[in-house]
Model the fold of this input.
Amino acid sequence: MKIATLIRLRRRIRPATSDHVTAAVLERYATGGAGIRADALWAVEAHLEWCASCRERLGEAVARRSPETMSLLALVQAKLATEVARSPRMRVRRLPRRVSRWTPPGLWPRLAMTLLVLAAAVGLDLADNSRLLPSLVLLVAPVAPLLGVAGVWSAGIDPAHELVVASPRAGLYMVLRRTLAVLVVVIPTLAVAGWLAGASPARWLLPCLAFTGGALALGELIGLRWAAGALALAWTAGVITPSVLAARTPLLLEPASLPYWAGLIAVIAVALVLRRDAYTGLRSETWFVR
Amino acid sequence: MVRAVSAGETAATTYAWAIQADGLRVRAGRRMAVDGLDLSMDTGVHGLLGPNGAGKTTLVRSIATVLRPAGGTLTVLGEKVNGRIDLRGLRRQIGYLPQEFGYYRRFTVREFVEYIAWLKEMPAADTPGAVQRAIDRVGLADRADDRMKTLSGGMVRRAGIAQALVNDPRILLLDEPTAGLDPEQRLQFRALLRELGTDTCVLVSTHLVEDVAAACTDVVLIDVGRLVFQGVPADLAAAAGDEAGAGDSAAERGYSAILRRHREAASARETES
Done:
């Protein structure tokens, strides 16, 4: 049906404009409706429902004749205003929530510390003009993500860890996701640091990934925090210290060793997938509880 | 809008009890905290009582599929929690409030509950509504957009209850939920428990005997990892009989009387053998 027809029909049903509520009845209605017959009262209410001009006149009549109603309205308005002020506002979507699905909030200080260590390594490399020592950035690069990786699955860093391990998403998927978040911060920083210090990514990228994956795989056996700590300690004691003392770049970080690192990464990937249930499954120990 | 009902929701249950333990043993560190527990629970509010170190938290953790049972069988929603099971499917149907409820201080209540809903693999379209409902049910709607670190201890506890409720779990595990709640909030919490107990298996671990007597349909009393008593709250209150046990209310006297009798019987058995 056309809208114009609808409007015409509506006009036919509605009373004519001359049938507005009289001023006397309206005043009585405003003071509580005493003295209006029940059927007339219904007619007044039905009329008020659709007639804006009579509603306006009713408002004036109420303001004139019924101070109780006015004070009640004022009270309701005041109460509503405080409720509205307290009720949730439309929020601006904050960044942290999106980011937090990738990393627990406690990880930020660790990432900041990693960046600080790398900045210090760059500073020392640049200060060493005569190139007596091997590049510190290159030496530190393989274990740089471990500080962050140690925090992705541990109760000490993630306060809600017990809730996380009891949730359906718990498992290797969550661990890998959070590790990726760590790498997204650490690897570009390493690239910049390496560019400044003259350490090419080709020499440290594979060792870096091998150590990250190795920590995850070892973490399936002894817990991620211990695994990352053990690997970082082993690298520091076995490679960084001797290289600095002997003042030469270790063979492990020469381009010739890259195929071995690639092979190691493949082995680690297989081990991770084979034991993937370790992060999902039931724990025999309560070590994850703070 | 009418919510679509999935086939999983209308399927008939194929298990007798929501939670069933047979000779369950669970280790907490070196100690066997739950040691030969037999227990069956179904829909309703179950109050888990027991002295400190009785194994309440360890039992709740093993039902939450966090700890591996060291022996016996534990069946949750018809799935044996031993070895290889579909943990994901089971965990989606469990709500859990740990005793030490850790949270992200910089998150708002809404963000935190949304995060937990995401962890519980809720569909993204349902999440905002479910989060608002959960926050409403614990009476935190006016603080929903405040950061967690600005909340008082009782409010944090209520936020913890909200995150446990958010996925409409079939099994709800609340470890010490009333710690830090003021008397009025505890009354509201009891009302919420009664409401939840109509279609959910709720297990509430607590020290407060009066909470159990007021809000629970079933009382479970354990001591040194074993079941001592299971029955309705009236049985607990009646257990004291005419004895003058320690406690101010009938339920408290019943609690201490049952524990004392159990310990006397246990020591008598030891001296015999």
Observations:
- The interface with chain A takes residues 27-29, 61, 64-70, 81, 84, 87-89, 91-92, 94, 96, 98, 100, 102-107, 110-111, 114-116, 118-121, 141-142, 144-145, 163 of chain B (CB under 8 Å).
- The beta strands of chain B are 19-28, 31-41, 44-49, 69-76, 79-80, 94-97, 171-175, 201-205, 218-223, 226-231.
